[in-house]
Structure formats: C-alpha cells, structure tokens
Amino acid sequence: MVVRFVRDETAEAAVEDASTLNQLPAPPRQLLDRHGARVLDPATAVVAAGQPAPRTTVYRPGVFLVPQRYLRDQQTLGAIDDVLARIGLYADPVVVDTAEVARVRQLDDLPVRVALRVREDADPVVVDCWKAIQLLKAAASAERPELNQVVARISPEHLLFSTPVFGGVPWETSGLGGTPWETSGFGAGSSYGRTRGANRIPVTLAAAPPYRSEKPEHRRPVIAVLDTGIGPHPWFGLADRSGPPPAGSGLAVAPGIQAAILQAQLASGATLPTQLLPDYWDAPTTGQPLIGDVDTDTGHGLFIAGIVRQACPEADTLAIRVVHSDGVAYEADVLLALHLLADRVRAAQADNRPEDMVDVVSLSLGYYEENPADVAYTGQFGAAIAELLGLGVLVVAAAGNDATTRRFYPAAFADQPLGGGSGPQVISVGALNPDVTGSKALFSNEGPWVRAWATGAGVVSTYPTDVRGTAAADHEVPGFGRNSFDPDDYSAGFAVWDGTSFAAPLAAAELGKALLQSGDLATVDRETVVKRAWTALGAL
After folding, report:
1. How confident is the model over 283-329, as pLDDT tens digits?
2. What is the pLDDT of residue 495?
3. Are 324 and 231 contacting, i.e. CB atoms less than 8 angstroms apart?
4. C or N: which end of the chain has fewer Cβ atoms within 10 Å?
5. Chain centroid to CA 11: how far?
6. pLDDT at residue 19 greater than cutoff 70
C-alpha cells in the first residue's frame, strides 16, 4: 500500500470546474425520507436580499444548528421567535438532560439542534429551515441588527455521507438516476464494479493477524474512527456481539460518547424522522429486511479498523459510531462526537492522564457546503475541528468519491487555517490505485485542497463475520456440494473494497507509526503533543 504525504503539484491544475458546482449524486427518495432530509435545489431555493444563490446540498429541514452559547440567552431566543412568527413557526431548542451529557452543556461552541415547530395560531405551513434561516438573515440585516452575530452562526443540519455513497458506490450502475456515473462506464464490467448493491466482495485472507506486542515499550497511539461502529472478528477478540472488545485487542469503544449521541437523537426524534444509533455495534446488516440485501455501508467501520491494524498494529482504534449502515450521518451527531473527543483530550492534557488521550482522528465522511464562498467557510464543522487541531490532535479526512474538484468537507479544510495555527491542519486524502506507480483512482475527488494520497482501491481488510445477505450463488450442482461464488457471505471475515474512505485511515495509521517513532507518548501536556504532531507529520 502506498501513502504520499507530499503536496501533489499536479493537483494545482485541477481547479474547480464551474459545471460541477451543483452536481451531486442523487440520493434515492427512500433514503431522504428515512432520515427526514431533502436536497437543496438552487433553482427553487428562496434567497434573502444580498445573499448568494446556494449550491446543492442535502439537509434536514425540521431543524437548524446553533452554538449553545446563544441558546442560553432568552432575549436572543425571543428575537428569533418574533421573526419566525411571520411564517408561522417558532424555535424550540432540543434539550438533552442526562448524566451522560452533563459536561457537554459547558461547551459554548457545541452546535445544538433547534427544532422548528408550527405555531398554534398559524395557518398550515411547510417547515423548512432553509427558508427560516433566510428570513432571519434578512431581518438581521434590516430591523433586527442584534441578531447579526447569532445568525452568522446558524446553519442547516447537513446529511454527511461516508464516501462510498448512494447505492453502495458512485461508480455502480444502480439505476437511481441523476449521477454522472451511469453514463461513464463505471458499472458492471468496469474495474471498480464488482457485485450488485456495493463494490465490496468477500474474500479469504491466508495470513496471520499482524503482530502486536503484548506489553509495548511506550503508550500506544490512539486513532479515533468516527464511522459505522464495529462487528465480530477474531483479529479483535470479538466472537459475537455480546460484549465490548477485550482490553488489549487493539479496538476500543467510547460508551459515554455513544450514550450522548443516542440521547441527542432521542430528544430530536419527535421533531423529524430520526434513525437511532443505540450503541457501537454496526447494525442493521440489511437495509431492507424483507429483501435481505446487505446494507451499503455495513462493515465500513470494522473494515477501517482492520486497515489501521494492518498498517500500524501497535495502535489502538477507538471506534465511535456516528454513521448509519446506509452510509448516512447527521451533522449534529458528528459534531457532538468531535467536541466530546476534544473535551476528553483537553482533560487528559490538563490532568496528565495519558490513558485518555486521542492522537489522530480519522474521518471517512463528508458533505458539500451550500455556501458559494465555502473557501472561507468556518462554521459549525470548522469550530469543532479547530478545537482538536489546537490541542495537537491530527485530523485526517477522506477527499470523497465523486471525481469532482468541488470542495468536500471536512477534507476541504486542509488549505484553510484552523485551530489558531498550533497543531497541523486537516490532512485531506485522495485515493490511489494499487499499482506500482500509485496512479490516482478514477473516482477520487481532487484539487489544491487534497494534500495527501494513499491506496484506496482494491483494499483488503476485516469485515464482520456474522454478515450474510440473501443474495445466493448463481449456480449450484445439487448433490455434489458445488456452487458458484456467494457474493454476500462474509463468514470468512474479509472483504475487498474501494474508496477514499479507506485511503484516509491508511494515512492515519502511517501517522500513528510516525508518532511511535517520535518519542515517548506518555507525556501529554499540550505543548509536547503539538510538537509531537508536527514531528510526526514532518517525518512523512
């Protein structure tokens, strides 16, 4: 596997193509309905005077996000409600009062969901946070200047997608319509198209698990993976789903963070369709129980954990489930996890608790920002990642799989200064093919904002051993025990898969190896951690 941590000068020529600014793979309607979301259409979206026309994005219309510092001010909330009353709505902050999230309420920059509800005295209205935000922007620039500061920080709640997107991957011929891949030869018979529904297939790996020392000389680097969670696999001592990964297995979970995500979802579930993430287990394995096909992103998180295990066996993977098995993540859930990770690191540094440190965060998900001036965009995601960068945590993000130069966030923060210039900036990772030359994968996004490249096609890694779908071998010889290949029986525990989703954790694992070589990881004060992060990045 190949990793390039050098700036690729040829990418400078890949400037943003204006013809792709609003071009996105079309999410199927059933996926949007499942998560209470819609596509923002620039042709029909309302726009406040003086505001730019938006670009295409996917968002949840029943809520918007506001940093919770503003929600503590009843006068600000009252002013927001006065404006929203013009369209028959009022703002209802989603309150989560549980022991698990008690400390979260101290984080001023934590984005909180604010539900939009219909006033009792109002005529029936269409609830749409985009229209509500535009109305608030118009009011702030005219008769309600006191709202300027808060309105600048209000944003829709985007849907984020893990980078193998709708229908499994963007290059399959899925018949969903509206994607550039359906006419570009990326379907059945292409080098990336393998099976129906997804480009992964089960394989057998005739190799021993990568060696991992029982008593390491130094603290192990910790790579937090925000993804679909985990499943059973012998590499991590998980025979089934009856308990968490055993200590020393190289895989760990964060029950407190997981509980906080669930409580926030439960609080907002009454407002709009919300699929819950009850724990850290990657489930359900099938998206449509009556059909039984393995869901598009089932196994995604464990596959990433296996990449880390192969490339840096001495590292520990901290798995946090924020992505559903259909590849969708809610922005507020991801931001909550990032803020809680930053809070954990901050406390570990302040109290000298190396056992609670997180050294690298790997993100194989993202979205396309609607603001045409997104090169300067530092909204909810920028603030969350800036916290981590300022603490010296290395953040690695996948560049996306849409073969576009349009900026895919959070990877596109790579060329934007965040975190007060302390730790290294976001490391965005595009995908390479598994050939000797390390050519760029045809599906990978690129542009000046893509700063690193790693193998992301034809990757073999761990897959939950209990996943089996209803797709059957297409040929059987009765009485002889002979069958053709079963495309969704993963009991062997391995798969081959493509995507920048898998290039990013490979880069994160290489950073983990560099951290091990940079010195004793037991010292965790902020100054040392920041210096160590720069040293690790410089070594590559």
Report:
1. 877 777 777 788 889 999 999 999 999 999 999 999 999 999 999 99
2. 96
3. no
4. C
5. 24
6. no
Q: Give the orientation angle of helix 500-518 with respect to helix 526-539, to 10 degrees.
A: 110
Of 330, 383, 376, which is closest to residue 158 (Cα–Cα)?
330
CA 379, 30, 274, 36 torsion-angle sign: positive
Q: Is the omega angle on the peptide bond into residue 145 within 30 degrees of 0, that is, cis?
A: no
Structural domain spans, the chain? 36-161, 193-470+490-539
Number of Cβ within a 10 Å radius of residue 257:
27
- pLDDT confidence tier of residue 231, bands split at 50, 70 and 90: very high
Q: What mean pLDDT, rounded, does the chain reach?
A: 86
Distance CA 344, CA 349 (A): 9
CATH 3.40.50.300 fits 193-470+490-539, yes or no: no
Task: Return phi, psi of residue 111, to 5°.
Answer: -70, 130
Question: Is 4 strand, coil or helix?
Answer: strand
Q: Where are the beta strands (DSSP E) in 403-480?
A: 427-432, 452-455, 459-462, 476-477
DSSP one-letter code for 86: G
Q: Please report the beta strands in 364-473, taking only residues with DSSP state E, as ranges in sequence order.
A: 365-366, 394-398, 427-432, 452-455, 459-462
User: What's the predicted TM-score (pTM) here?
Assistant: 0.92
What pLDDT, in 10s, does the model give residues 96-146?
A: 655 555 566 567 788 889 999 999 999 999 999 999 999 999 999 998 999
- Supply 100's token pair: 């698990």
Let me know: does 526 contact 392? Beta carbons within 8 Å.
yes
Name the nearest CA neighbour of 362 among 429, 436, 419.
429
Length of the chain: 540
DSSP string, 292-329: -PBPTTTTHHHHHHHHHHHH-TTSEEEEEE-B-TTSEE
- CA-closest candidate to residue 60, choices 1, 130, 10, 107: 130
Most confident by average pLDDT, 33-47, 69-83, 171-185, 309-323: 309-323
Could you give the CA distance from residue 429 to residue 445 in angstroms, rounded to a whole number? 9
Residues 404-445: tens digit of each pLDDT: 899 999 999 999 888 777 899 999 999 999 988 889 999 999
Going by the DSSP 8-state scheme, the letter that residue 411 receives in this structure is G
The pair of structure tokens assigned to 165 is 């997107």
Strand, helix or coil for residue 159: strand
Strand (E) or helix (H) holding 259: helix 255-268
Tokens of 43: 């042709």
User: Dihedral (C-alpha) 448, 451, 454, 458: value to the nearest 10 degrees?
Assistant: -30
